[in-house]
Amino acid sequence: MKPVYSAATPFLVRSKSRERANAGDGLILDAVEAALKPLRCVFKVSTKEPLSLTAIRKINATKALLIAGGNPLGDVFKVFEDMAIEDWQKIKVPIYIFGAGISGNPAQTRGMTAKTTELLDWLHRQARISSWRCVRSIAYLRLNLPGLDHQFLMTGCPSIYGAPLLAGGVFKKDGLRVVVTCTERGDFLERETAVLRFVSGRFPKAERVLSLHQDYAAGEKTKKNVIELRRVAQAMRFKFFKPHSGRDLSSFYDRSSLHIGSRLHAHLYFLSRAKRSFLVGIDERALGMAETFDFPLCDFKHLDANLGYDFERVRRRARVHHEAFQKFTSYLKAEIMR
């Protein structure tokens, strides 16, 4: 069998689903594939729907299944919808967790269920190492699965390890194109409006763009606050960018100067290119990454408080964690090529 693999990703969403595709998940998938070259991913399957027998047959025709990114870690390990361990066991190739993280909801991380401990124990019997993206993920795993502690590797998120950051590229301070990202979930309007207002006032001469990682306004039933945020951005002369993939995002962000907003993977990608980025924290996922890579989380009411941050702190942490990332990718390549 050729050394090819399958990947399970939250990036893929059915066209008729109420879910909106998140282009940020595409950034993670692209980074995973780049890290494992020359190995190829020949089959991708969505974690947003049940895993079919047809998909399992396609997975079993490759050398491995990667759980690529996402936030499945919690009291219930959420990868595929309604999937019992008996269904997992129909997958006959090794399964590897790569850059996954903890749920952003504290109510979902109070203590693993028996089914979750059984599943993670089974997964770690076939894979010597698993890759997790932040210190909070590792802490939760160690608390709930102390016997597997030696198999958990804190690798950081694959999307942060760009050559400009690791090699020492200068963090430029220009603001020719400023990207704002928003997260239109929960009670978001006050927060996201404040970010737009701050950027509009602070960078009046810059090209200002609202980047929509998930375009909730594309659905048939749109929330009033989603439409209102679009109206506010338009009134402040923001342009709109609606990416369809990770490559759309990376191409656009490579030609941008600065990011301010609440989308974690926009933040990580800008940092990977040695570009300034300021993340407005909204849940535990952001907090876990901030603790891992030593960057501040911004309060939307005081966005100017962190503008003097020394980004060399991020670079130092990234170089340290990149060693673990390289250890995991080397291990994974060797396993798939066996």
| Strand proportion | 5-15%
**Which quaternary structure do these chains form?**
single chain
The average pLDDT is 93
Q: Care to count the β-strands? A: 12
Query: Which architecture of the largest domain per CATH?
Result: 3-Layer(aba) Sandwich
DSSP summary: helix tally:
12
| Helix-strand makeup class | alpha/beta
Main sheet: strands, sense, barrel: 6 strands, parallel
Strand order of the largest sheet: 9-8-7-10-11-12
Helix content: 25-40%
Number of domains: 2
> What is the overall shape?
globular
Order of helices and strands: EHEHEHEHEHEHEHEHEHEHEHEH
Rounded to an integer in angstroms, the radius of gyration calculated over CA atoms is 20 Å
* Low-confidence residue ranges: none
Q: Which fold name is given in CATH as the topology of the largest domain? A: Rossmann fold
**CATH class membership of the largest domain:** Alpha Beta
- In whole angstroms, the N-to-C terminal distance is 10 Å
